[in-house]
Automatic annotation (TrEMBL):
Residues 106-137, 301-320 are annotated as: Disordered. It holds the Pfam family Epimerase. It comes from Haloterrigena gelatinilytica. Belongs to the NAD(P)-dependent epimerase/dehydratase family. This is NAD-dependent epimerase/dehydratase family protein.
Length: 329
């Protein structure tokens, strides 16, 4: 494969994917609406086609003018997007859909591609655009991939959990980095052993390329850090990269109530472990970046940005009330 079309390509996963493809000798075209700054505007190795991927005519025009070998669909948020793309790019050597670990419908540990069932999706959910139906829509997108493969399309999907790293516009990890950078005492909800699988963004980009090159049509592949860390360990990794000491203070529901805080107010907290098996992807030759190295790059990118994740998590004043209560015990 030589020519790749990335639907999206300018913000986070897509941006890293374009860089990954360029490093491996692909000619890359990105398709997007142009609502976000294009980091490849001055890079003559990357062509751009303007268009809304939800517009059938725009997508059909891209299929005709670009004629890619591989298509990477980073911004398919409704099942109809996937069905349309797999129809228009049916003759490509690979169509790879960015799905999600949220597509799984049962709390297995770990969640396996060929064993753990997917979320159901009603007609109303399929056309929704709220976060409440996100996993349902991603699951239905996976089913569209499987259906296309049964018709002979070389379609596959990749399922990441929470993705982190440079250019992460969600700022979920930034909230925690900011906390560790500014305070000596960091409140961690629960007992600190919470596990929510995460995936370093460059590893996700590599997974998408490898699945396109080596994956099997009709298959889904989980991607995520190969060594999982708990929430407390994540805070410690951040502190190590900031070369600072931090006192981790765990707090349960009763203690957090002193600040009118709930466990779920903390970003990246999940009561039940969310773990994806990545063995199937690793069997294709994919390797993950060690957690310390990935966190170093994430922290460096945070420090160079103006992101603080302030829209996430409780405010510090509320946490100080919790710390005050804990100090009396």
């Amino acid at each position: 494969m030589d020519d790749a079309l990335v639907i999206g390509g300018t913000r986070f996963i897509g941006r890293h994917l374009v860089e990954e493809l360029l490093e491996h000798g692909y000619d890359v075209t990105i398709l997007n609406r142009g609502t976000h700054e294009n980091p490849f505007a001055d890079d003559d190795r990357v062509d751009r086609v303007e268009g809304d991927r939800t517009n059938e005519a725009a997508l059909e025009a891209a299929a005709t003018t670009v004629d890619p070998d591989a298509v990477f669909d980073c911004v398919a948020y409704q099942p109809r997007d996937v069905r349309e793309a797999t129809r228009l790019f049916a003759d490509c050597e690979a169509y790879v859909y960015v799905s999600s670990g949220s597509a799984y419908g049962r709390e297995d540990i770990p969640k396996r591609e060929d064993e753990t069932p997917l979320e159901p999706c009603t007609p109303d959910q399929a056309t929704d655009d709220s976060m409440e139906s996100y996993g349902n829509r991603k699951a239905e997108g996976d089913r569209a991939v499987f259906a296309a493969a049964e018709q002979g399309v070389n379609a596959m999907s990749v399922r990441p959990p929470v993705v982190y790293g440079p250019h992460d516009y969600t700022e979920r990890l930034d909230w925690w980095i900011d906390r560790v950078n500014r305070f000596d005492r960091v409140v961690v909800p629960g007992d600190g052993t919470n596990v929510w699988h995460r995936a370093y963004v460059e590893d996700v980009a590599a997974a998408l390329r490898i699945v396109a090159e080596r994956g099997e049509p009709g298959e889904a592949y989980n991607v995520g850090d190969r060594r999982l860390v708990t929430l407390s360990e994540m805070v410690e990794l951040i502190a190590d990269q900031l070369a600072t000491d931090v006192d981790i203070v765990t707090a349960g529901p009763r203690e957090l109530a002193a600040g009118d805080i709930e466990l779920d107010d903390y970003v990246l907290y999940r009561d039940y472990p969310h773990v994806l098996s990545t063995a199937k992807l690793a069997a294709l030759g994919w390797e993950a970046t060690p957690p310390a190295e990935a966190m170093e790059r994430a922290v460096d990118a945070h420090l160079e940005s103006d992101r603080d994740g302030s829209e996430h998590g409780p405010d510090r004043e509320a946490e100080e009330r919790v710390l005050g209560i804990l100090d009396t015990f």
